[in-house]
């Protein structure tokens, strides 16, 4: 029995020793885990390697300019470093980001208040819901409510084809950020288009947060990264990144300096005429004029002269391009690559991207008339290789350090919406169309064609061939041609009956063509005038509603507007195209272009 007890005690000692050794090993591993640096774990963790690449900002910028951040999981941090929103040194980032997040929290508390709370503290007797005093809390409350309502109307229409932006939480975050920005920057306020600048920022930060959560599920445990990528601060981080971008482009949204010079108070009613449109002195207007007259002209004189001859002012399409940082011209993933380059270089690269975008589609623009060029510029074609646009812009900006790109696809595909508009603006279905913008022949009614063909069948093959040749020459119908035919007909002595018969047939066909020409122009002008009139009515209605809102702020705040607002910018695009088509009708009637 004593031997058994000795054995049991021996086993107990061994088990205790094993437990002690196991605890010691666990404690040692924990101590090693705590003291292991990020550098020692790079080999086994590509996510951490990407994070460490933020330390070498110069190399990171070159990677961005070479379009190498497409799948980068710290893109939002890289953007913040490029824009100097966050410091380059990792040791200072945590302190800076804590500071910015606390500042945004203060903004939220500053502009989120209930006027009833101030009534209890203030002794003002005139501060009531009907007060129009600028210092009134109620007046400010209704102004804020109107501002939020205006922002929300834009936010709910942002990127309708991307489900991420249709979520209620994301839309609420966007409205709060834009509202706080507008209140904090009263000199700029909120302008339409800012919501589209904000949307990709939130998308990128949210994507980075999701990448971190995935890495965390796979064992990542880094305090520094966890605080930088905290999903709870999506709104805070998005606000400050948006603010730093707007600091560089806020002048592009400034409309206060717009002036128009009219000689002797004479207003030229010609659409897009030089007297009015080319005398736009806003900051963005001057910038666009400089880009086309200096940069574009230097790199492509032929394209510059073509757009100038067509009198297509760069402000027509360029203001949207620049203010939205080319958001509507590229798909989301390509757009983010484009923004990588802009933020890594500086915003002066936008001037050269603008030029490169025009030169990339020069093969589409040069053969086109006014309306078709405007279609391509307002509905920018799909560029198969956005890298080519970026590298071409860098070459124009600094040709010594960036050679001309040669190993890229220059293929462009016209925007389907532009093609639809072009097809819709062509001749009616009864008239045939061939090619991209050239209408070759005009079909006559069936009864006229049958009668005409029956008469021709009764002739000899030579006269039929001769008449067909004459008809094919009659592309540009004019009264001068008919007058010439009448003179020739009157000069005949009647002996050549066949020639007289052919001449009469030609006259009948051309008169019929003229009838079709006038009918088509009439219907065409009516269609586009209705579009313009609809737009004018819409503007008048909005102006009346705006006036009514100012006079009845309290009543307006209690009403529910059930009428859906049409996309103002889309309507404006249609009006510009309609005006271009009316100019085309004018040229048809003048005889300078043919149907």
Task: Write a structural description.
This protein has 26 helices and 2 strands. The protein has a two-stranded antiparallel ribbon. It starts with a helix and ends in a 5-residue tail after the last helix. About 16% of the residues have low confidence.
Task: List the topology elements.
Blueprint: H1 2-35, H2 46-52, H3 57-65, H4 75-82, H5 90-110, H6 115-121, H7 137-155, H8 168-184, H9 194-217, H10 223-228, H11 234-249, H12 283-299, H13 301-309, H14 314-323, H15 332-344, H16 349-360, H17 362-365, H18 370-378, E1 382-383, H19 386-397, E2 412-413, H20 416-424, H21 446-457, H22 461-472, H23 479-491, H24 497-551, H25 553-558, H26 568-590
Antiparallel strand pairs: 1-2
Report the helical percentage: 55-70%
Q: What is the average of the pLDDT values?
A: 75
| Strand-pairing-aware structural class | mainly alpha
Radius of gyration: 35 Å
Taking pLDDT < 50 over at least 5 consecutive residues as the criterion, the unreliable ranges are: 258-279, 425-479, 490-495, 554-564
Number of helices, counting only DSSP H or I runs of 4 residues or more:
26
Number of domains: 3
Largest sheet report = 2 strands, antiparallel
The count of DSSP E runs of length 2 or more, i.e. the number of strands, is 2
């Amino acid at each position: 029995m004593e031997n058994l007890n000795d054995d049991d005690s021996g086993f107990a000692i061994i088990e205790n020793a094993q437990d002690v050794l196991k605890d010691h090993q666990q404690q040692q591993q924990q101590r090693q885990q705590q003291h292991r640096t990020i550098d020692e774990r790079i080999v086994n963790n590509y996510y951490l390697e990407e994070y460490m690449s933020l330390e070498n900002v110069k190399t990171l910028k070159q990677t961005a300019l070479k379009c190498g951040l497409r799948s980068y999981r710290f893109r939002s941090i890289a953007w913040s470093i490029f824009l100097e929103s966050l410091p380059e040194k990792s040791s200072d980032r945590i302190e800076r980001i804590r500071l910015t997040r606390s500042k945004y929290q203060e903004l939220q508390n500053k502009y989120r208040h209930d006027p009833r709370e101030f009534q209890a503290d203030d002794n003002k007797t005139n501060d009531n819901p009907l007060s129009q005093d600028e210092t009134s809390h109620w007046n400010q409350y209704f102004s804020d409510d109107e501002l939020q309502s205006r922002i929300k109307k834009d936010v709910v229409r942002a990127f309708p084809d991307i489900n991420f932006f249709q979520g209620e939480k994301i839309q609420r975050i966007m409205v709060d950020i834009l509202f706080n920005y507008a209140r904090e920057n009263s000199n700029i306020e909120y302008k339409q288009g800012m919501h589209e600048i904000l949307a990709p920022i939130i998308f990128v930060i949210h994507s980075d947060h999701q990448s971190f959560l995935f890495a965390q599920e796979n064992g990542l445990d880094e305090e520094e990264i966890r605080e930088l990528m905290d999903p709870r601060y999506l709104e805070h981080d998005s606000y400050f990144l948006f603010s730093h971008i707007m600091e560089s482009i806020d002048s592009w949204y400034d409309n206060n300096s717009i002036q128009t010079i009219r000689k002797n108070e004479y207003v030229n009613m010609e659409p897009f005429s030089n007297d009015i449109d080319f005398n736009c002195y806003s900051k963005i207007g001057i910038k666009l004029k400089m880009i086309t007259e200096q940069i574009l002209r230097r790199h492509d004189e032929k394209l510059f002269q073509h757009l100038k001859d067509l009198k297509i002012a760069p402000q027509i399409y360029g203001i949207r391009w620049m203010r939205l940082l080319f958001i509507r011209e590229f798909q989301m993933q390509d757009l983010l690559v484009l923004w990588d380059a802009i933020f890594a270089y500086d915003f002066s690269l936008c001037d050269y991207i603008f030029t490169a975008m025009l030169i990339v589609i020069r093969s589409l623009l040069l053969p086109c008339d006014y309306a078709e060029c405007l279609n391509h510029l307002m509905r920018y074609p799909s560029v198969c290789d956005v890298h080519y646009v970026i590298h071409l812009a860098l070459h124009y900006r600094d040709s010594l350090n960036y050679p001309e790109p040669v190993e890229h696809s220059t293929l462009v595909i016209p925007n389907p919406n532009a093609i639809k508009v072009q097809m819709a603006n062509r001749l009616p279905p009864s008239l045939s169309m061939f090619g991209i913008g050239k209408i070759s022949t005009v079909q006559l009614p069936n009864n006229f064609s049958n009668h005409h063909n029956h008469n021709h069948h009764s002739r000899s093959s030579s006269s039929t061939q001769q008449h067909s040749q004459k008809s094919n020459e009659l592309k540009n119908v004019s009264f001068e041609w008919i007058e010439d035919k009448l003179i020739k007909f009157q000069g005949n002595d009647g002996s050549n009956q066949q020639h007289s018969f052919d001449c009469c047939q030609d006259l009948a066909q051309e008169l019929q063509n003229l009838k079709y020409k006038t009918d088509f122009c009439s219907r065409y002008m009516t269609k586009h005038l209705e579009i313009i009139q609809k737009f004018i009515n819409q503007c008048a209605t909005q102006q009346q509603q705006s006036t009514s809102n100012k006079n009845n702020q309290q009543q307006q705040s209690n009403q529910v507007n059930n009428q859906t607002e049409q996309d103002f910018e889309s309507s404006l695009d249609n009006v510009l195209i309609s005006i271009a088509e009316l100019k085309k009708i004018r040229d048809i009637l003048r005889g300078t272009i043919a149907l």
